[in-house]
From TrEMBL:
Pfam families xrefs: Met_asp_mut_E
Protein's recorded name: Glutamate mutase epsilon subunit
EC id: 5.4.99.1
Catalytic activity entry: (2S,3S)-3-methyl-L-aspartate = L-glutamate
Quaternary assembly: Heterotetramer composed of 2 epsilon subunits (GlmE) and 2 sigma subunits (GlmS). GlmE exists as a homodimer and GlmS as a monomer.
One example of a Gene Ontology biological process annotation: L-glutamate catabolic process via L-citramalate
Record-linked NCBIfam families: MthylAspMut_E
Names of required cofactors: adenosylcob(III)alamin
Residues noted as binding adenosylcob(III)alamin in the record, renumbered to the chain: 68, 122, 179, 295, 324, 328, 332
Residues at which L-glutamate binds: 66, 99, 148-149, 170, 176, 180
Species lineage: Bacteria, Bacillati, Bacillota, Bacilli, Bacillales
Keyword list, A-Z: Cobalamin, Cobalt, Isomerase
SUPFAM superfamilies: Cobalamin (vitamin B12)-dependent enzymes
């Protein structure tokens, strides 16, 4: 049965909750009323909603790195290092086995990590640590914690982290499915995330505010801003329907400063308007992800990419920035590399904020393009769903109206092909079934044609591959101005 965009009834929610908590032994440790009292006892500086709200008041960009290891001791040391370097809010990246609900494999990896005194998992197995372990981590860290993972079914994970005092959870039924999973159905992932959102709504009704953050970058590879913004807004609307009141919507850098700024400003403006139009009372914040694509191997060049992202986050008015490290090209970064990325970003943000009044970039034309495209997508999704957003999303992916470039899911058409234009902004060379009008398509074609004239060649596969690697190669512009 397809999910509907309607708040889960109390009967349905608690019936499913019994199954969720019974799916692994650590679920039995959770008592909702006790968890409410535990969360109520947290000081404001450990609340994601509180910290985000205070940052918005003073136009401050909060810094958040990435990172997760298997053990409580190791994760505590990692987060303490992040704090020492200047990070404001803390991530706990969850291991891949937990993301796929393979808790037995996570248990084996945790046991091996404890024996070897080194992490053999690529993240923190929160479900296996359970309430006691996750609370131990939370109580050791004087900052708000957020789970960052990539699970199409993170229901038990959500139960455990929130009961443990972690006041934010990243993900959504689209953004933690289509870019991550090959075979997970949208029907199941949307319903699973409705549960996660309803859980947050239940806490909200009991006086506990928790933050939810859809994953903005999607595949992180040349994703046109209108596609990522439309999906972020729709995931926000799905969350709000379940009673979520504090929502952070994110955007992943495309590497082109004016387009990034235009996308972030458009995301904030459109989401605010649509939340109000649908009658949702939401405290909205925004998240800017530094470049998610291929990174330069040279450390000095990698720092330039980090600094470009830091500059853009301030100019775009982001509430929070997700930080990369100078060692991204080498695999999972070390604590030292993470600390260097944080320090670099912190210093750059501080310098730019002090000059913000004299730094202006006119992005009005790009904002107009992004907003028109985004509304064309959202309107068509609602039309296909006959007014029901959840139905419309599923139907739109089936028809290719929603289509994320380079996503692995079998439920994604993969017919949309992006490319950079003559200035380096992301345009679309193959539209698939995106619901764009002739005017929008002509605009893309015109700007791509200008690049073709400048490079004296037609768009081809090699150009698209070059664009994917353009930031890491340092030849961002393909029009002869590099170097």
């Amino acid at each position: 049965m397809r999910p509907k965009n309607a708040k889960l009834t109390e009967d349905i929610f608690y019936r499913i909750r019994e199954q969720v908590l019974g799916s692994w032994p650590t679920g039995h440790w959770i008592d909702l009323e006790e968890s409410v009292e535990y969360l109520r006892s947290l000081p404001p500086h450990k609340s994601f909603p509180e910290v985000l709200t205070e940052a918005k008041k003073v136009n401050r960009v909060l810094l958040q790195p990435r990172g997760g290891v298997a053990t409580i001791t190791g994760q505590t040391a990692l987060l303490e290092g992040f704090i020492k370097a200047g990070a404001d809010v803390m991530p706990v990246t969850i291991d891949s086995y937990t993301r796929q609900n393979a808790y037995l494999k996570s248990e084996q990896g945790l046991s091996e990590s404890l024996t070897k005194d080194t992490s053999v998992l690529n993240g923190f197995p929160a479900v296996n640590h359970g309430l006691r372990g996750c609370r131990k981590l939370s109580e050791a860290i004087p900052r708000p914690l957020q789970a960052r993972h990539g699970s199409p079914d993170g229901r038990l994970l959500a139960e455990i982290i929130h009961a443990s005092g972690w006041t934010s959870n990243e993900g959504g039924g689209i953004s933690y499915n289509i870019p991550y999973s090959k075979k997970a159905s949208l029907e199941s992932s949307i319903f699973n995330w409705q549960y996660c959102d309803r859980l947050v709504g239940v806490y909200e009704e009991k006086g506990i505010s928790l933050n939810r953050e859809p994953f903005g970058p999607l595949t992180g590879t040349l994703v046109p801003p209108s596609i990522s913004n439309a999906i972020a807004i729709m995931e926000g609307l799905l969350a709000a329907e379940q009673g979520v009141k504090n929502i952070s919507l994110g955007f992943g850098s495309v590497g082109h400063v004016p387009q990034d700024i235009a996308a972030m400003k458009s995301l904030r403006m459109m989401a605010s308007r649509l939340f109000k139009e649908f009658g949702y009372d939401v405290n909205l914040s925004t998240v800017y992800h530094q470049w998610m694509g291929n990174f330069p191997r040279e450390e000095s060049e990698a720092y330039s990419v980090i600094n470009l992202g830091s500059l853009t986050s301030v100019l775009a008015g982001a509430t929070k920035m997700i930080i990369k490290t100078p060692h991204e090209a080498e695999g999972i970064p070390t604590l030292e590399a993470n600390m260097n990325g944080i320090r670099t970003s912190h210093h750059m943000v501080k310098m730019i904020r002090s000059q913000l009044g004299s730094l202006t970039i006119d992005v009005s034309d790009e904002m107009e393009i992004i907003q028109e495209e985004t509304m064309l997508i959202i309107d068509e999704v609602f039309r296909l769903g006959k007014g029901d957003l959840a139905e419309g999303i599923i139907e739109s992916f089936a028809k290719g109206v929603l289509d994320i470039p380079f996503a692995p899911s079998i439920y994604n058409h993969g017919a949309v092909m992006p490319i950079r234009d003559y200035l380096g902004a992301i345009r679309i060379v193959e539209f698939g079934n995106l619901p764009f009008n002739a005017h929008i398509k002509a605009l893309h074609q015109e700007r791509i044609a200008k690049r073709e004239r400048l490079e004296n060649k037609k768009v081809n596969h090699e150009m698209i591959v070059n664009d994917i690697f353009s930031v890491s190669n340092g030849d961002f512009f393909q029009n002869g101005t590099k170097g």
